[in-house]
Amino acid sequence: MSVLTTLPSYASPIEKIWYVLFRVLCGCVFLFLIAPILIIIPLSFNAEPYFTFTHEMLTLHASAFSTRWYHLFLNDARWMQSVENSIIVAFFATLLATVLGTLAALGLSRSHMPARTFIMSVLISPMVVPLIITAAGIYFFYASVGLTGSLLGIILAHTALGTPFVVITVTATLIGFDQSLIRASAMLGANPATTFRKVIMPLILPGVISGALFAFVTSFDEVVVVLFIAPNPEQYTIPRQMWSGIREQISPAILAVATCLIVVSIALMTVLELLRRRSERLRGMTPQ
Amino acid sequence: MAQATIDELQGLTTADGTPLRRALHRAERRAKIRAFLLVTPLLVFLAVTFIYPIAQMLWRSIYDDTIVTLLPNTVTAFKDWTDRDQLPPESVFAAFAVDMKQTREDRTIGQVATRVNFEEGGLRSIFTRTARHIDDAKNVTSWRDWFIQENPDWGKLNTWATIERLGHAYSILQYLAATDRQYDDHGNIVMAPEETQIYVPIFIRTLWMSLLVTLLTLLLGYPISYFLATLPIRTSNLLMIMVLLPFWTSLLVRTTSWIVILGKEGVLNDILVWLGLISDDGRIQMIYNQTGTLVAMTQILLPFMVLPLYSVMKTISPSYMRAAMSLGAPRFLAFWKVYAPNTLPGVGAGALLVFILSIGYYITPALVGGRTGQMISNFIAFHMQKSLNWGLAAALGGILLAGVLLLYALYNRLVGVEKLSLG
Amino acid sequence: MSNLLKTTVLAVGLAAFVAGAAKAAEPLTVVSWGGAYTKSQVEAYHKPFTKKTGIPIVSADYNGGLAEIKAQVEANNVTWDVVDVELSDAVRGCDEGLLEPIDSSMLPPAPDGTPARQDFLPGTLTDCSVATIVWSTIYAYDATKFPGEKPKTIADFFDTKKFPGKRAMRKGPKVNLEFALMADGVPADKVYQVLSTPEGVDRAFKKLDTIKKDVIWWEAGAQPPQMLADGEVAMTTAYNGRIFNAVASEKKPFVIVWDGQVWDLDLWVIPKGAPHAKEALDFVKFSTDTQRLADQASWISYGPARKSSVPLIGNFHDSDMKMGPNMPTSPDNFKNALQNDFEFWADYQDQLNERFAAWLAQ
């Protein structure tokens, strides 16, 4: 089906060269995307406190590798505190964002929704407004209501930042949702709650879950707002702790933490991919 | 469709005698309210935790009542200062003495001094030093003489013009400062001295770097999106992981990895030395400058370009190009004339999204930007956290936000928010 | 609004708090500059204080400045109890009413009974602060990078012909302008006089121009020894204690050049409305007694602010390395030294910060 990526037998030499070049180019771009992430993983097992591959590492000497940075990470009270904080914050922010975002997406998808485009763009704006502006605004506001230096404050801020993702993904699953299903359900005697549980929920569930995953990652990764509203290490999250590490004393322990985070993202991505396939199957689309 | 039906139903009534038209209207209004109620919780939540805080922060860029509150008598007395080419009259000096005693007592003189000093560097100490002596001033006949004797700077027109300018709670002073402009002694707006012109060049640099990042992501993203879109679905799904994994990986992790790769003792320099392309002493500075920032930002934002491009390219039927080629167009011409124009919506969506995200970038420039890679966000953070000139930070933020919202509106119009796809 | 908000979100976020609320003893939050410096304070002050009073101490890091204190005080929501600040910030913070006044007559006297006010070095007690240490900004180089002639004067730092290699400097005008003028031949006692004139500032920036392309800028005190160790730079300005620690505990081949050092004070302050103001004051009194200050000096090479502490300074902890010669105040090191003029910086820092930022961005 493709024109430049598969080659007919009658292709001219120039086309053949182009074909090879194009693939090499794409390979390079893929490498550019992925290599920086993968390179961290072996380096985090470096026995030496350096950021480069030592000669021993390249010759695969067992003594050149060690898990010392992982031990350092796992036995450091500050890092462990930040892991705990990150999980608490991300969990509650995700929960709140998912509930609020899903409700809003349901409203937005109704054909009677007034001023839909405008409201939608307001709801998406936390994703677009530069984080530094959001952080500065929240900083002053939280200071005036006494929410700085508390996990609750971070949870609320991250909820606001996470909702656009839920709104987008849930709205997307509702495109093509046949509103007459709701009427049919009502006519068959179901009350709105039952309709929601039995008819709407199963259909939008993949969207809700992937939105929730996005919200989770957003919170798990966010550092600018935390930089402003969490002055004390008791409220530091993982990225905040990494920030201090990178700014001040960049030790390979950072790489160990980074590797752990990469594993987390791979896990989340896999869940999302499985969901996507499931939802395509449910909607009767073959995975092409 | 509902509208058309209503118009056709003129004159009909429901069972209880209500005109059908009104009944339908009522039903529709109820449906509208119900839809709106679902959105309300999130709208209220965002209004409280997001929109209001930003508005309140931006408010600081035009409103500052430090001087009005702390030097109330002086501000009132400025009414008497009619000849602006002369020092203010004695009444102003006397009122200022009263205010200064009060601020000394309340320990707020530092706030006054700081605010004035933001506007005119070096004025701070004449406030604090003079305030230390004001309680000793007894039986003063001319406050004007007393002040000028205390410090000759009180005899300068500029000192008083500065205080007077700050005596208005609402002003555009911060926006002038944010665009490298200032008032001269006669109240005209002029450019600031060249060695302190900083924000206009930084805004230009921010736009320029964002443009470069957008172009780079387009340049790299277009071929691979095309490649992905034309591969069989199984292969492309597999390769798509290469795009999605960076997308899901922490920004800080990716920034860290660029520090590791591009650093002077980093992986890339090591490879170059090993290959013999550079000597060990000639290691190249690739990070802590603009280059490092551009490379890292391009990699970080590339998925935001690839995803919309890919989703548009998937919908373009390959038969278009086959048709063009069977009509005799060379392969590349067919691609350029037939395929490429169809991808424009994707290009627009991706480019706008990447551009919008770039101009507000903070983390990456802060960590790998060094001297030449700093962007406007970093300066906003500087004034928020270091210099404490919050009004100026708000003004810079206001300009940045206006730019972003403008682009966002453009995006809405050209692409539509509802088309925003996330993989 | 604030109440409404609080109640709504409290209901939702309550669970997040359950874990946090269980913690019993209220800890004191002491904020300082991190790294080896904070470690010296933890060893010399925090641990003995907790042992004596049972009050735990949480130590937080920051990079200086009044921003956080100002935000907390203005919002009436102070979470920091004791903060380690530079002199210019202590004075400015006091002027702006951001700090609690500290009556220096309450400080413990020296062991021989000398009242605290006479025991502290002149100028180290202000209305709102108590000094703990004298520290200085110096420059240091990696000895392995200069096998032949060694850098000796502040002018050598700016001489990239004679001593090639990258430099690192603190990102900000403070100290750098002073270094530049001294390297340009201005005697230490004339530096601030020259710097108060526009021509003097131009002259300093012109001198900085000569090495601008070779400079990498650091922000946190822990960075310069790291940059030297990583080979990113050959010479760097730094806080003397940080370099000392890299040499003493990590055996790095770094050498400090004391010529043209700019010395300053670090002081304890208590933000206005600190949550545990009483305990904070107890901590300040406890940590600034003669023995405590001397103890700290055995962990990092910063001079104690009390005269009576000097004779008590011993060796670098658990070693035979004498601390005395490594202090900024030791006579050999003090020959060409300049005290940071807090009033000059309080006056001109906004203006010079802007100018410096503009200069950097060019």
UniProtKB/TrEMBL annotation, chain A:
Q: Which GO terms describe its cellular component?
A: plasma membrane
- Residue ranges of every copy of the ABC transmembrane type-1 domain listed in the record: 83-272
Q: Where are the transmembrane segments?
A: 20-45, 86-106, 118-142, 154-177, 203-230, 250-275
An example GO biological process term is: transmembrane transport
- Tell me if Chaperone is a UniProt keyword of this record: no
Q: Has keyword Transport?
A: yes
Q: Name one Pfam family in it.
A: BPD_transp_1
Membrane topology qualifier: Multi-pass membrane protein
Keyword set for this entry?
A: Cell inner membrane, Cell membrane, Membrane, Transmembrane, Transmembrane helix, Transport
Q: Where in the cell is it found?
A: Cell inner membrane; Cell membrane
PANTHER family from the UniProt entry? INNER MEMBRANE ABC TRANSPORTER PERMEASE PROTEIN YDCV
Q: Which family does it belong to?
A: Belongs to the binding-protein-dependent transport system permease family.
What's the protein called, per UniProt?
A: Putative spermidine/putrescine transport system permease protein
Source organism (scientific name)? Tistlia consotensis USBA 355
Automatic annotation (TrEMBL), chain B:
Concerning InterPro entries, the annotation shows: MetI-like, MetI-like_sf
Its main localization is: membrane
User: Glycosyltransferase: present as a keyword of the record?
Assistant: no
Segment forming the signal sequence: none
**GO CC terms in record:** plasma membrane
Transmembrane segments in this chain: where? 35-55, 207-231, 238-261, 294-313, 346-368, 388-411
From the Swiss-Prot or TrEMBL record, state where the protein is found: Cell membrane
- What's any GO biological process attached to this entry? transmembrane transport
The answer, when asked if Hydrolase is one of the entry's keywords, is: no
**SUPFAM superfamilies this protein is in?**
MetI-like
Keywords associated with the record: Cell membrane, Membrane, Transmembrane, Transmembrane helix, Transport
- Which membrane topology describes this protein? Multi-pass membrane protein
Residue span, ABC transmembrane type-1 domain = 203-411
Q: Which PANTHER family match?
A: ABC TRANSPORTER PERMEASE PROTEIN, INNER MEMBRANE ABC TRANSPORTER PERMEASE PROTEIN YDCU-RELATED-RELATED
Q: Which family does it belong to?
A: Belongs to the binding-protein-dependent transport system permease family. CysTW subfamily.
Quote the protein name from its UniProt record. Answer: Putative spermidine/putrescine transport system permease protein
Which organism does this record belong to? Tistlia consotensis USBA 355
UniProtKB/TrEMBL annotation, chain C:
Question: Signal sequence span per UniProt?
Answer: 1-24
Q: What is this protein called in UniProt? A: Putative spermidine/putrescine transport system substrate-binding protein
Q: Supply the alphabetized keyword list.
A: Signal
Identify the CDD domains for this entry.
Answer: PBP2_polyamine_RpCGA009
Tell me any Pfam family this protein matches: SBP_bac_8
Which InterPro entries does this one have?
SBP
- Which PANTHER family does this UniProt record tie to the protein? ABC TRANSPORTER SUBSTRATE-BINDING PROTEIN (PTHR30222:SF2), SPERMIDINE/PUTRESCINE-BINDING PERIPLASMIC PROTEIN (PTHR30222)
